[in-house]
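[User]
Protein folding is very new to me. Any chance you could explain this protein sequence and its structure tokens? I have pasted everything here:
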Amino acid sequence: MTAQHATTGRPSAAAKPARLAADAVATMREGARLRLDYSAQSLWRVDRLIDDIRREGAPYAAVESVLRGLGAYAGEVIVRQTGGEWWSSGSEYWLRTPDGRLWDPVDEARRCFYGDGSLRLMCRDATGGVRG
């Protein structure tokens, strides 16, 4: 799980969530005209976007990949602010912050969709309130 990519120096588990996050940034920029800059403040906009999707009544199956990308984006915000690292088991991804805590931002995005989560608050908790 901790094998390094020769070109990036990041754990190999980081490749897929980092790509999902980058895809979400591009999709939001092009489709929703929403600029995501990997800052903790940008997660306010992501939480609001997920709220709007829920209020529109979209079925989960229709937005599952969008939520996965937005969760990966939130995870990348945390990784960049804390120096945490992505871990994987099969097709599941979570991250570990340097203090040893584990976080599941993809699941948190799903919980946001169901009205019981916040990527912004998860980031605040994971970073100890670090501003970025």
Remarks:
- The chain has a mean pLDDT of 88.
- Residues 75 and 105 are 6 Å apart (CA to CA).
